[in-house]
Amino acid sequence: MNLKKDQPNSIFVHGAKQNNLKNISLELPLGKLIVVTGVSGSGKSSLVFDTVTAEGQRRYIETFSSYARQFIDRMDKPNVDKVDGVPPAVSIEQSNPIKNSRSTVGTITELSDHFKLLFAKCSKLQCPECKKEVIEMPAARVAKKILEQCSGLKIAITFDVPVPKSITNEELINSLSAQGYTKLLKRSKNEATVITDRFLINENTDESRLIESIENAYKTGNLHCGIYDLEKKQKINSYSKNFNCSNCNLTFKKPRPALFSFNSPIGACKNCKGFGRIIGVDPNLVIPDENKSLSEGAIRPFQSKSYLNCQKELLHHAVQNKIPVNLPWKKLSKKNKDWIFNGSYSWTGKWTKEWYGILRFFEKLETKSYKMHVRVLLSRYRSYTQCKSCSGTRLKPESLNWLILDKNIHQWLSQPIYVVDQWIEELRKKTSQKKEFINNKEAIYVIIKEIKNRLNFCKQVGLSYLTLERQSRTLSGGEVQRINLTTALGTSLVNTLFILDEPSIGLHSRDLENLISVILRLRDAGNTILIVEHDPQVISAADHIIELGPGPGNKGGSICFTGSYKELLTSNCITGKYLRNEKKIAEQINTTCSNSKPISKILSITGVKTNNINEVDFNIPLERICCITGVSGSGKSSLIQNVLYPSVSHKIGLGQRDPKNYKKIDGYQLFNEVINVDQLPIGKTSRSNPILYIGAFDEIRKLFASTEEAKKRNYSPSHFSFNTGNGRCPECMGNGFERIEMQFLSDVFLSCERCNGNRFREEILEIKFKDKSIADILNQTVSDAVEFFDDQNKILKNLSTLLLVGLGYLKLGQALTTLSGGESQRLKIASHLSKSQLSKKDTSVNNKYRSLFLFDEPTTGLHLDDIKSLQNAMKKLIDQGHSIIVIEHSLEFINNSDWVIDLGPEAGSKGGKVIAEGTPNQIKQNNFSHTGKALKKYFPKNDKRGGGNTLKTHRNYFNPQKNCIEIINARENNLKNISFKIPHNKLTVITGVSGSGKSTIAFDILFSEGQRRYLESLNAYARQFVQPGSRPEVDLITGISPTVAIEQRSSRGGNKSTVGTLTEIHHYLRLLFVKIGKQFCPKCNILISPLSREAIRSKIISDFEGSKVYILAPLVIDRKGSYKELALWSIDRNYAKLRVDGKIFSAKKFPKLDRYKEHCIELVIEELTIQKKYELKLTKAIEDGLVFGKGSIGLLVKNSKKSILKNDSKDNNSGLFLFSTLNACAKCGSGYAELDPRLFSYNSKKGWCKVCIGSGLKLINDIENTSYAEDLESTLTDANGILQSCDKCKGGRLNEIAQFVFIDQKSIVDLSEYSIEDLKSWCKTYLKTLSKRESSIAKDLISEILTRLDFLDQVGLSYLSLNRSAPTLSGGEAQRIRLASQLGSNLKGVCYILDEPTIGLHPSDNRALLRILRSLQKKGNTVVVVEHDEETINIADNIIDIGPQAGLNGGNLVAQGKLVDIISNTNSLTGKYLKNPITKQIKKTKDTPKSFLRIFGADANNLKNLNVKVPLNKLSVITGVSGSGKSTLARNILINNLKALCSKKTRKKSSQFSQQSWTGCKKIENWENISRVLEVDQSPIGKTSRSTPATYIGLWDKIRYVFSQCSESKMRGWSNSHFSFNSGEGKCPTCKGNGVQKIEMNFLPNVLIKCEECSGKRFTLETTKVLWRTKSISDILEMNVENALGFFSAHHSISKSLNLLKDLGLGYLTLGQPSSTLSGGEAQRVKLASELSKSNDYTHTFYILDEPTVGLHMADVEKLIKALNKLVNLGNTVVVVEHQVDVWAASDWMIDLGPTGGGFGGELMNQAPPDLIRKTKTSTGHELNNFLIANRKK
Hints:
Elements: E1 10-16, E2 24-29, E3 33-38, H1 44-61, H2 66-69, E4 80-84, E5 89-92, H3 105-108, H4 111-122, E6 124-126, E7 133-134, H5 139-149, E8 154-162, H6 169-178, E9 183-187, E10 191-200, H7 207-220, E11 224-229, E12 234-240, E13 243-245, E14 250-252, E15 277-281, H8 283-286, H9 308-320, H10 334-342, H11 358-366, H12 372-380, E16 382-386, E17 402-403, H13 409-413, H14 417-433, H15 441-460, H16 477-491, E18 497-501, H17 509-524, E19 528-532, H18 536-541, E20 544-549, E21 558-563, H19 565-569, H20 574-579, H21 593-596, E22 602-610, E23 613-621, E24 625-630, H22 636-651, E25 664-666, E26 673-677, H23 690-693, H24 697-705, H25 708-712, E27 737-740, E28 748-751, H26 762-765, H27 774-778, H28 782-788, H29 793-804, H30 821-838, E29 851-856, H31 864-879, E30 883-887, H32 891-895, E31 899-904, E32 913-918, H33 920-924, H34 930-938, E33 964-970, E34 978-983, E35 987-992, H35 998-1015, H36 1020-1023, E36 1034-1038, E37 1043-1046, H37 1059-1063, H38 1065-1076, E38 1078-1079, H39 1093-1104, E39 1108-1120, H40 1124-1132, E40 1137-1140, ...
Parallel strand pairs: 3-19, 3-20, 5-18, 18-19, 24-30, 24-31, 26-29, 29-30, 35-47, 35-48, 37-46, 46-47, 52-58, 52-59, 54-57, 57-58
Antiparallel strand pairs: 1-2, 1-4, 6-7, 6-17, 8-10, 8-11, 9-10, 11-12, 13-14, 15-16, 20-21, 22-23, 22-25, 27-28, 31-32, 33-34, 33-36, 38-45, 39-42, 39-43, 40-41, 40-42, 43-44, 48-49, 50-51, 50-53, 55-56, 59-60
């Protein structure tokens, strides 16, 4: 097929070869509803799910972190040449029926989770005794209540204390006086009421004193206090700080979500464990026949031989107690029945002398339930009954005390969805009006909104009748499918690929129209919908249709048709023929013999009562195909599965229990068996195949065993089995293939080398029947096999059933896991047909063997042509006298059935009634039947289908979407209710001054919302590892697609983080070495090979003779877990000891292990001395050890009891030797564990070098506990800061075992040292040298590696090596590595959001980056960049300028449009600077530097022995392309050396500086005038709300001191520490000084709310009453820098710091603003201000700044340059590592490094003033010159 590549709005699939696909290529138009159809097995799922969906989901998931990806199900990489233009995919597949009774409608819709949160946040507690509300009352709330309710009253605040009678009043008063209390209100016998304070409540009442008094009462009165009216001498009220009922003195715990969950031990009923029912003795089963008397054996369990003595004892005691033994059970009195069940009323425990009762009999049996026969007996007489403890609510009583709208959580969940929706709306209104919810109002609003949305989605797909507590396993197929669809509806995404797998399954035609409406809504929102479907209604609604075929299996996999529905109707494909009635399922409806006969036999069942069916009678005609139809949820499955199947099975003696949910059943006498054909999967492994499933393989094996040659060799039928016996291949154990596990890649399956995939041993294949071996038979198709076995009747009968259901094309040995859904369903039918034929006992005319077949939607996955084959097979069964009852929704099937019973009229409580019954034609005439209406519409009398017109109304849904993301009324952070649009598939730049709100738009709104909506399509388990951001404060966001963010990261990782790990290339290399690496012995350099048992024994005897040893079997190797079960396991096998993490323990005293840490556990097989006389004992120990250790054993030399048991040795494995029958050295006998990816990991104890813990560097400190290795970065340098390679691993980071595994004679360390370019070349060359087997294993791995290497090459990083550690990367290199990792996803329709990607890039590198961004955009993606770079702004398609200022003065949309629009806008600060550059505005006198700091022989990292001059008292810039050595020169040489030289200790001994003392250079001259060195780097300044600009720059300490000097502070004795919100008594105790409280929302984003206690002021009420110049300490925190500067103008030390912040453009920041909310530019400038505030005007400071323009707008850059020049004018030296060209132009001196990065960089290109640099031919000179020329023209 020729694909039109010039059409970007399509997905292009090239060369799809997955499963049976025939290398097909096709185009899938985006934004359309696409249906893929075709006969069963034609390759539909292979194309849609295994190819397109797999790529769409895999690529987007790969943009997540590697940690998150391991928890998200990813599909295998498909067998396809290429898939272009695929958007992120969300798959809504069929799910298997849920069997777990813990799963409910509430849990699968996640509404239960949201209700748990809701009840934890806003429910009210009702005391179960007095039914009064119990409120948690902190002191501040009590005080407010008193002020509101007690105005004008004289009151006393009291508390009660227990007092013994022996204490006199005088003694009591003296005791209270000592505690500060002098007033006793009253005293009773055991209690006294004490007054803490008295008040006259009026407007002048001191609230702080009132609060303090209540707090004191709480402290002394056990968290209780009382309020007394002193005039009336009566108690007004009592309060508790906790949830305590003062009336009943009951205390309750604070609610948490788990309290309301029946799946949590915290909330679940203790008796039933949250199931709502318990299993117990069922009287109906114990006494099945109530007409029998005790003597006749009414008690069934007592009638077996084992318990006849119990029957005798019962009769004996019954006669003694005058209980009638000959009276039928039903006529016995209740008292007599109780005696029989419960035993003697005066039971004393004497089993032989008293009647123990039936219940005690079963209780005694329970004690012996470890015996299998007892468990079987118990199961016969037990059933489930409602739990009496919780009455079926599943929850503890305390969970039901919490109410919302006077209803507990069970009452909420037990109502239909439409009722719950009404209640939620009522709650929403009440929440917005009432004040009692004010504390959690924001959190509650979020939860209510989520619940409301989900309830609305359930209503939209027609599920409003369901209750949330209904068990999922009771739902119909249609209900489950629609519940899954609600999740997709809720995402509201665009540009997403939604994939549905036959959504029509289980849906009635009426429900299907609703479903199609929902699907079209998804499409019209701007998404692509791809559906695998056979239903004509869905096909008719499609925009584009693809048919695969022409046949199933090997005859399919080709494209038969692509086009519109109208084109399909005129095509020659099989679907088109059926739709235009050219082909029919039946030539004449209602002319079959079964339908033409009069109804003479009926299955009658009356008074049916189950679920929503209530007292309904059913008459089902037999020897016909009878369809049970009705809308989803109308009661079809309830009738068949709950009533018909168990009742008929019970009546004809097939072992089912009688459900007793009907009055009478008749007609069952005609049947010999009932066959229930369900939808459960038929096979999970490759060992299961069609010939086994239908039971024909046994006969074939017998046939081969009966051949002459087989008899000569004594071969039995078991020899011809590939599952067991001696005939199967011993290498692959009869699988025919070998499975290579590839961990995070899809596993590889290779044909077994020994049997070539034939499954059997060679000698077995020599046995032939008609010149064919058993393997040849398995390779035959069913059709071929029928011809081959034409003379074998038994085999032929089985195989003919496969032909009957249209499966003649299947191979006999084809794995069932490869079958499609339709093929599996028909195979199941064939199996039952086969069994039915073989089970006929009497085929005479008068006595037929009749079966009742029950089918649940047998047309699932079937094309119309397959339905024809199915119905023909069924009609043959009918002709044989069988009866068939089918639950079905397929109109084609219903129309061709014999009889229809239609249930309804609606679902749930409105269903369960018989609406119509009769032939399909009769049903069509019923105007009340939804089925009849659909049949009439679809099959009109003129026999011309209406399928093409049935959904015409849906075609009017489509409204062309605006081709943009639209954000309406954004109020997040400082945004001022702004609205704007971002065009799709364009490059948009968001710019504006630092702090104006750019990142808020890009990340807090765009990225957060796009990713959140996609993640909502994942399950709750996955979402907890990729926690989505909170919903932004915005009215509406439309047109948003899934988003990918490439953010700045201030942390680059530790020394163990490398280029290889950052790009994940190292992970793929690790896996490659595991799969095809060759391991050598590190001691002998000999290839590792298996060692025989005899060789192991001989080696141990010769090397360890006379030694006391432990023989160990490894059970757990470096795995996480608690492993308690291993101790029990070892005790059961009579092994007394285990070695756990190097220590030997008794199995009975197994230690408690940390389940989150890795552990090693070995079983101690034997403890012995190695001597020849114990050789037999040693041999047995080795044999047992190899069995338990799976081919490996350990030998631990027992040096001393102390070192073994107490583990004094640092190395737990000293004295341990490993031996293996799998991996061992032939020379020294050393054994090695199987290769594991962790062996090649720097971060695993299994792989890292034990000396350097995987860092590759020499450590100063001796590390004893490697579990803390991650925190030891400080130990990786010597005293001078030089990084030295580890002596043990030579910098390779891995241990010697890992370094002795080779591929192509190279270790993983060798490959990690290659440059990206060299590694690419090696991979391509090596791939060509691989054998076919090795290529099958390695090709996908090497392909992944090459892909990632290509992207690194694209972003200009081909010079890097994989082992380069992250801290040594420049900012630009780190940024481009992150960009390269995202480029690999190759997605379409995604919104990429980048945060200043030009940071750290030289202007020449910047241009290459912009080309990449443009290529991303041209692939069909939206690219949004937060940027200040002028070149990026110039090339943008759309520019959004936010401002006009920062902070509270920002957040407005200043300008939007193209570059010309921004420049022409007079309000745009960006436009102003683009028009009038900084270089024009800064006028600086240039003079020649006179004094220089000189560096000689700089050679650190890639520097090439440079001699560098840095002018003193000037502004210098170090620049050059990324990776050229700038940071090395600035940090490693200048900072490290100058800090060492400027320290007091060194300054005195500067003359003693030797050559070895210099770091990274030979020497530095002319440094003596420098007093100190200050570095301003890019590390973060704070991560919590406790860090603020005021605290960071040291300003807050001075302000606190000012407040501590106030007279009121001195009077109270408060020091400056009292005014700290981080410590001290002044901070608010509720929020701990944060001002906000975090509300944990579990799987929802956490919510921060203002603290109710302090109203967000951070301090206690008393503290805020201390004023200085009419302002409290909290008022100061709320001031911005400019206001504070005026306020503290008289305080020089304070105003100096404030001035610095203002000069750096931060006058808008508030002093108390959390540092975590600052933008990158703001944080950098706060840090600079902090350093500047420490400077002394009389010292020469050497400032080194690392890219200070990061995050700065052009206006902010101007302020920065002025600040830097000010420092220079004060006599300081400033050195800046910078790429910003304005800074270059404003500098006095430039040091230019290059010419490229990495090993080819590190040269000094130039060092001179900018005016000279611009004249050079270097890349820096070229860029500077072009910039200055361009600015001159403006």
